[in-house]
Known about the structure:
By secondary structure, this protein is of the alpha/beta class. It has helices at about 20-30, 55-60, 100-105, 115-130, 145-155, 155-165, 200-205, 215-225, 245-260, 280-285, 315-335; strands spanning about 10-15, 35-40, 65-70, 75-80, 80-85, 90, 110-115, 135-140, 170-175, 190-200, 230-240, 270-275, 300-305, 310-315, 340.
Amino acid sequence: MVKKPFTPQLVYMEPKALDYPLGQELHEKFTRMGIEIKQTTSHNQVRNLPGKNDFQKYRVAKSTLVVGIRKTLKFDNSKPSAEYAIPLATGCMGHCHYCYLQTTMGSKPYIRTYVNVEEILDEADKYIDERVPEITRFEASCTSDIVGIDHLTHSLKQTIEHIGQTKHGRLRFVTKFHHVDHLLDAKHNNKTRFRFSVNADYVIKQFEPGTSPLSKRLEAATKVFEAGYPLGFIVAPIYLYSGWKEGYEKLFIELDSKLPRKDREKITFEFIQHRFTKPAKRVIAKNYPMTKLELDEEKRKYKWGRYGIGKYVYQTDEQKEIKETLIHYMEKYFPGSKLEYFT
């Protein structure tokens, strides 16, 4: 379990990153910290990471940071969480066995941060303007755990304050990390929903190495709530194991005991059941060969997904039981709170 903020072991800089103030700032910061900085023409040229085998190289990649430019400024859709994904970073230092980034990141699981933040925010403004008078929501954690690196970059903080000044923009992100202190004084103007990913003890202990313990996440959630941020929790992935009902009720009891009593009706929940794809199953087996994650296709129901890649989800009756059980706990311990979706 992680207690210290992320520090990269190795940093790659794209040459044009130094044309931006954030690129220069990060170069100076990592130089002072004594971290090795290598030059790369593009993140695609990051090869030959240290390690005797794929297993070791994967772990080195997870502690490698590439500082570069976000060239593609077209934002992806991000349903059901938001209208668009705002691309501030890619990759994550966590080692969650089930994570969908296992496949989307492919053979390049290193972390990338983009220094052309002003250009990204200008593009966000265009998306907002196109939809006026509708509200436009941006999800900042589709391809990364942005909070996990923001103590280094502050690009998330800049985005929070930028969206806070808009009339029709909203920001959302989710994290498994507790390093939030630098975000508490951000001028969010109630336009950023700060969400924490939470789960039953069994799931966190077995499948979420390299992340903050639940107790630390809840301490951070309390700080965030008291700083006036709209607060949410994503219970994901909801995973069936022996004793899962008791485990998830214990989670809600923990949430109830640790969070302030005031304004709880403003808290939102999102419930996401565990799912996997065939490509993900292969990558998980390679990267975490000792995992206890249940990936038996015979026990699951096949559901067609975007881009022709289907997912294995729980059977219909299991999904019904998961949904009813979790909604019952939410209504019991957080009456008046809102379920945004179950998927």
